[in-house]
């Protein structure tokens, strides 16, 4: 399995082999892994999920209690906010993901709405902070100080409408690297919000400003002449080409079925276009399979390889709200939210 080139971070990371795309679901052994600290080993008998903060009745749920609640399953595409960082120029710090920081799985678990209802959330609540059992010191760059836990918050409305506390991934108990026994799944949002190894839900009445919320996994938002730090949230519209792959050698005049996937966060993919001349001309690709609200849209395009020489292939998606993938990089996004069109160079012989 490919390892993402790692600029100084010791934590385990694994790219999904995106070029192997062969259906809507990423098999568990090909699903990408991004963990900031060592995976905690949790004992099911001792594990509890506590629900605290701005609630009428704090809870402490066991694995059995969570599983006994009505369950729901949903197919969700999750992209790491740093996916594609390898293609940024100048180079930005962090894991140098190519195209494999994105995967799709079917998750089964308890809707968070039911748990919040049981706890009786106070009307002043604005967010739920998801805290993982993992933590440690921040090493890259070094920040001397006490160890911290991995934690992220999600607005209360999103928690009520879409968030799942998942215990099964593609029909199997969630593997230790993916957050056993229970993780959050925040459909349509960048992966960082889907906290693994959940141990605590803290309902808060002010926006949370933790390390992975406002320092990392955050970007600059401009409003009224001010620049402020905003946490990455919904995934942006984006298409990737699975095949051909960069550097592939293709015979001039041959027919080639170009395949890929596109996703649009909380919106949906309206169209995917393909270009074989570096973005001068575009033709519409075919959307395939059965679209699901939070899952990627597979697409294909029957293409005849042009004259010999290097050839710059591009795919660009448009979402249902009319957002088109940009051609240039927005520097306010720093090293996250990478959705500008990135060419795949192949060699026509
Ligand atoms: N507790 C915990 N949750 C976490 C993380 C983490 O390091 N610790 N990484 C986040 C990030 S940045 C991503 S992209 C996804 C990756 O999930 P996966 O490893 O199952 O693909 O988990 C998120 N949840
Ligand atoms: Mo991530």
CATH class value of the largest domain: Alpha Beta
Going by CATH, the architecture of the largest domain would be Alpha-Beta Complex
User: Strand order, biggest sheet?
Assistant: 4-3-12-7-8
Q: Give the topology string: H per helix, E per strand.
A: EEEEHEEHEEHEEEEHEEEEEEEEEEE
**Helical stretch tally:** 4
Give the CATH topology of the largest domain: Sulfite Oxidase, Chain A, domain 2
Describe the fold and architecture.
InterPro entries: Ig_E-set, MoCF_OxRdtse_dimer, Mopterin_OxRdtase_euk, OxRdtase_Mopterin-bd_dom, OxRdtase_Mopterin-bd_sf. By secondary structure, the protein is mainly beta. It has two domains: 214 residues, Sulfite Oxidase, Chain A, domain 2 (Alpha-Beta Complex); 111 residues, Immunoglobulin-like (Sandwich). Helix content is 7%, strand content 40%. The chain is built from four helices and 23 strands. The strands form six sheets. It has a five-stranded mixed β-sheet. A hairpin with a 2-residue loop joins strand 13 and strand 14. The longest helix has 8 residues. It is globular and about 70 Å long. Bound molecules: ligand MTE and molybdenum atom. Molybdenum atom binds next to loops.
């Amino acid at each position: 399995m490919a390892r993402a080139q790692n600029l100084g971070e010791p934590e385990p990371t694994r790219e999904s082999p995106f070029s192997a795309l062969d259906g809507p679901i990423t098999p568990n052994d090909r699903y990408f892994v991004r963990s900031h600290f060592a995976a905690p080993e949790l004992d099911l008998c001792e594990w509890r999920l506590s629900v605290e903060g701005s609630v009428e009745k704090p809870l402490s749920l066991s694995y059995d209690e969570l599983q006994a609640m009505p369950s729901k399953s949903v197919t969700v595409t999750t992209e790491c906010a740093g996916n594609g960082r390898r293609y940024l120029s100048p180079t930005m710090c962090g894991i140098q993901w190519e195209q494999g920081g994105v995967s799709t799985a079917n998750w089964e678990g308890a809707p968070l709405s039911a748990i919040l209802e049981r706890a009786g959330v106070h009307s002043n609540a604005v967010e739920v902070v998801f805290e993982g059992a993992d933590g440690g010191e921040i090493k890259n760059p070094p920040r001397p100080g006490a160890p911290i836990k991995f934690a992220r918050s999600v607005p209360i409305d999103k928690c009520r409408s879409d968030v799942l506390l998942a215990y099964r991934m593609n029909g199997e108990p969630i593997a230790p690297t993916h957050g056993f026994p229970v993780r959050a799944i925040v459909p349509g949002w960048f992966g960082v919000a889907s906290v693994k190894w959940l141990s605590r839900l803290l309902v808060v009445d002010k926006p949370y400003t933790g390390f992975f919320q406002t320092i990392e996994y955050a970007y600059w938002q401009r409003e009224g002449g001010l620049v402020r730090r905003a946490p990455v949230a919904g995934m942006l519209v984006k298409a990737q080409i699975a095949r051909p792959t960069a550097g592939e050698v293709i015979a001039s005049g041959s027919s080639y079925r170009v395949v890929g996937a596109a996703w649009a966060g909380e919106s949906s993919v309206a169209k995917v276009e393909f270009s074989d001349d570096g973005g001068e001309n575009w033709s519409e690709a075919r959307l395939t399979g059965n679209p699901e609200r939070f899952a990627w849209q597979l697409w294909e395009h029957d293409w005849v390889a042009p004259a010999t020489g290097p050839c710059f292939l591009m795919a660009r998606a448009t979402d249902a709200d009319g957002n088109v993938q940009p051609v240039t990089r927005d520097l306010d996004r720093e090293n996250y939210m990478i959705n500008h069109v990135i060419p795949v160079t192949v060699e026509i012989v």
